Amino acid sequence: MLDQWCNERFDFEATFLQCLAKHVPNIYSAEMDPLVEKQEEMVQAAILYPLECYLFGEDPDVFLEKLQQSGTSQLCGKVFKGGETTYSCRDCAVDPTCVLCIDCFQNSIHKNHRYKLCKASKNSNLLMEETKDKGVFINAYSVILFGNFMEVCIAPLEVDFVTVVIQRHGRLDRCVLNMSLEHQVLQKKFFSVLTLSHALQNSECQLSEEIMEHSRRVFPSVIKYIVDMLIWEEEKELPVELTISREKVDSYYCVLFNDEHHSYDHVIYSLQRALGCELGEAQLHTTAIDKEGRRAVKAGHYASCQEAKEEIKRHSENVSQRPLHVEVLHADVMAHQKFALRLGSWLNKLMSYSSDFRQIFCQICLKEEAGSENPCFISKLMLWDARLHKGARKILHELIFSSFFMEMEYKKLFAIEFVKYYKALQKEYISDDHDRVLSVTALSVQMFTVPTLARHLIEEQNVITTITETLLEVLPEYLDKNDKFNFQGYSQDKLSRVYAVIYDLRYVLVSKPTVWTDRLRERFLEGFVSFLRILTCMQGMEEIKRQIGQHIEVDPDWEAAIAIQMQLKNILLMFQEWCACDASLHVRLSKTGAISRLHEFVSPEDFQVELLVEYPLRCLVLVAQVAAEMWRRNGLSLISQVFYYQDVKCREEMYDKDIIMLQIGASLMDPNQFLLLILQRYELADAFKKIKPTKDQDLIKQYNVLIEEMLQILIYVVGERYVPGISNVTKEDVIMREIIHLLCIEPMAHSAITKSLPENENNETGLENVIDKVATFKKPGVSGHGVYELKDECLKEFNMFFYHYTKTQHSKAEHTQKKRRKQENRDEALPPPPPPDFSPAFSNVVRILNCDVMMHILRTLLQRAVELETHLWTEAMIQMVLHLLSLGLLEEKQQLQKCPEEEVTFDFYHKATRMGSSALNAVNVLMLLEKLKRVPQLEAQKDTVNWILQMFDMVKRLREKSSLATVGATSGSEATKGDELPVISLFPSCKTQSTQDKEKAERKRKAEAARLHRQKIMAQMSALQRNFIETHKLLYENTLEAQGKDDAIMEEERYFEAIQLNFRQRLHVEQIFDLENGEYLCPLCKSLCNTVIPIVPLQAQKINSEDAEAVAQILSLARWLEIVTVRISGYSMKNAKGEKQNLPPFTNKGTGNSALEFHSILSFGVQSSAKYSSSIKEMLILFATTIYRVGLKVAPNEADSRIPVMTWSTCAFTIQCIVLLPNFRGEDTPSLLEVDMFHILVGTVLSFPSLYWEDAVDLQPSSVSSAYNHLYLFHLTTLAHIMQIIISSATESPAAHSSDNGEEAQSAQSFCRELCQHTSGIRECKVVLIEGKTRGCLYPAPYLDEYGETDPGLKRGNPLHLCQERYRKLHLLWQQHCIIEEIARSQETNQIFFGFNWQLL
């Protein structure tokens, strides 16, 4: 065959197909039980080896060796799997899809930058939305170009040449260039990218002309064969050229295909019922189908396979809505399709050898037949992608990665083909049931996120219009009769597939152009107009009607509408940024003044401002009415929508934009007309008229809530100016203000702040750029996390009615700030900070504050509070009125300080001090404020009222021409003090100010007197308590002590019984505690226990010094040892009862000395044993027997001799766990080195009084005897411990000769070295504590980011480093045997109501 291929007279394609027709059916004949290794050997020998010999012109191994020696590069080409960690540089990345694998990251300069870690998509075997193969990173003077995570660094030089350093893993590599037009020339002395690209191509070894010629003969035939077999639809026949002249064999396979509708159990059940196979065989088939996408489950004649097909479909329909996909294929068809995939893998390997192979392959795949309308090879495969099984799709996608995506020019051509068939591909994917990762549409991220390529596709292929039109074509089923979206009864799976199209639009728009061309502008506007059609369908979608009378039966679906709004949020921002970056448009608008002359081009009938604010006002009124519980019959779905409307995930394009739209309306409308429209929409016009008293509490509550909500919106419209364009602020100013108000609530962790800030299209919040300007970081301790605390100089920026506060946050922030001011001995007034000036286009908004309708609203509410005649006011309402008054006075003050009085048209002071009417009892705002201070219900607002009165006085004096000079000289200092008004220092003779000073002094005096009175009373109570205890000291020592012990014992027993009853009542919950062994959590320290140690208080005993000195002269250590030895020996012989005793040698030493009698130990002082209550004795016995029963897992036996030893050891071990670290020792080992001397000390001290027992009387050692016993026991154990230290440190000890060169030690050292390399930048860490199958918990990992927080699942992506303190705490948890205790605490807190096998983790 090789000879025929080498002979040019033969047609290569014909001979190649003949070879396949001859060998392939024989190689893949046993598909039911294939021998994979044998099949591969036959393929290599019969087909692939001859093919490679012909292609390379020599032995393949020789060719590959020459290729490596020539220095041909190998691109990284990393394809991420599901859950694999990726790295993204926050300093250099163009967008979030620019990522690196770990190897390339470690060998790049980005490891010294700010970087982020994230995970590839779940169950992903390809590069997904989070990743991108190429991108442009600009950093200082270097360009970092990612061609599948390779880098090219171009350093600025003084001469006209470029030094290119391309290095990966210590070898010279080639990088595919991907550079935007605007970045092609970084410096004037740089060569162009084309020159650089040419230099790179020359750096790679070129293939010989002979090999390239052979490639041009081989590749077309191989590619055509692969394409023909993958899209072959005939089940019984093969193409004519693959049919050989032999009798057709009646051999067929029943082939079952994978889908995402049927579960494992469904497929196994269907196979068992249809084929009668065993469970193991059905499981084997199912696993193979899920992995490869299809599997032959039966072989035989056509009729039997067809019967099996029908049976499988019938049984699968019984357990699912649709049957399994089953086909009957001829054995030869099955064999050729399988070999076609093998050839695809072979081509994939060839693509990595050389760029020439890739270019030839791409040329053939893109070549169209002359005079034919059929698509090219690669387009055929893309269009057939949705009908291919999983295994074929994987190989096809890998082949595209290794060929087209490695060559920039052909990547562009592939992208053109992709866009050409984009609509068809997306519709096929939406109808398909496989995950997006297995669809060719997932490759869009590889093309649309490349800036240069995206511009080209916009200009030449009109890709924005193509994507938006695709959206419009796949969404008609969700349109109602009014052409508005209605997602009731939608399919979650299908709609989530539509989101993929929205992702593609986001990818195309992710990089804004810096250079606009007429063609680009034209195509962009076409796509934008098409996108507006989508927004038209969304405007007013799923309108709701207030339910009156009867509650709705079923909550409507609302998630889809919110979800699609969230998907489009960033796209809306991107379109705005694209429009904003077109400088030529702004220049033309500025020169012509078109904005200011808008009324000349649009008639008043067509341009109605009321229509602009109608929908935003409806939404805000709806929010207010929901808060007033007027929509409670509409169910929970509406409450959820209102929550998302104001939530940080959606508010930028919902709530915030509605406030801006109201500000636009306020700037264009007459202020009185605007406020009347607000009152009308809130249905509050009647509420501000003369009202009749009503006893309907629900109606009063509704009115009050609506008024509060309306006043809040008015505050936002007038006061919220931190929006670029509304005022002269930047995005950094906006973020800083958000952070300031978050930290005014309480100090927060970095993660908590990040969650509360909106993300941009790059999933960044901008927090790191500004956080250090407004806050200081407080590092964490051993537990907890680090927090940011607001700097003192930023506290003056606090605005109590910040529009992103929830009601809970508002209350908490107000409480925190008032508490802070009180601690600083300042008043509790919280006036608003001076807001930035509106931009000229919005300057008319402030007129709302001093219009007649506003003054009427403010006077009406203040008058109601003063007169106390109606319930239509609340303290919150008055607080908002005071805030509006503060805003008006601050606005007028700022204008007066900047301009002469005659130029200031804002006259809030005059309007507020003008009488409300001509009636005799008419009042103005200033008069009402004076009366308001005397309202007892508003005592908390008195400081704010005083502040406002001071502001009125200040504005009045600023209005007076005589004091303009003085005020002007001090205005600078006044502006810097914020809410600390300089009125007191400016006007010391002011009557109002002196009155306020007196009131403050009086309040302070009363508070101090109350404090001293409380202090005096507490001192008296303490003295009485001490006198009572001293007087009844004896009673406390004797009576209460015993009573306390008994009560504690009884309380412990009752607590344990309650715990047992509580957990036994949980029928279907896994038990947190081992009740059989008496486990429970201590109610005080939350430690896991199964008994309690009865601690008998030490009785104070007096020691006579003369007796002690006399005993010391007689009882030396040696004499004491002899006496104790005799006593022990006597007890041993008495218990022996004639039996032969194997006594220790030291006990026999003194038995023959008649001078030392058995009772001599009693001669140094004895006393009667202490008397304890029966309950204490019972508790001691219970404690000892519990240790015996649980420790040895035997039945209770109070007479067992092991009970005392186990009891003493338990006490010693408990003390060690509390105070020391346990010294673990082996069991049943007599070696001195392995004896725990602390256990010995505790045991001997507790057991030594037993040597004083006598048959006739209960005795115990006297105080003097006990003291010497304890002293000598301590001496002995200390000496023994010193001997342990000496022996273990001696060079002759066996431990010193232990070898460290064993295989186990070397493995441990190697593991430690490997671990140390990664602990400085660990990717993810989880700690799972497990005790048995059903008891376990997650424990905070010791790896923290720079903010002292863990990051489960890499949600934030910050680099993690080992925290030594946390690791020590974890180590201590293990050493002190507290793991089970920690598990019990966690499970009790989390209340797990289902069983979970923790050992499966």
UniProtKB/TrEMBL annotation:
Keywords: Acetylation, Metal-binding, Phosphoprotein, Transferase, Ubl conjugation pathway, Zinc, Zinc-finger. Residues 811-838 are annotated as: Disordered. The keyword Phosphoprotein applies. It catalyses: S-ubiquitinyl-[E2 ubiquitin-conjugating enzyme]-L-cysteine + [acceptor protein]-L-lysine = [E2 ubiquitin-conjugating enzyme]-L-cysteine + N(6)-ubiquitinyl-[acceptor protein]-L-lysine. This is E3 ubiquitin-protein ligase. The keyword Protein biosynthesis does not apply. SMART domains: ZnF_UBR1. GO terms for cellular component: cytoplasm; ubiquitin ligase complex. One of its GO terms (biological process) is ubiquitin-dependent protein catabolic process via the N-end rule pathway. It comes from Hirundo rustica rustica. Its EC number is 2.3.2.27. Transmembrane segments: none annotated.
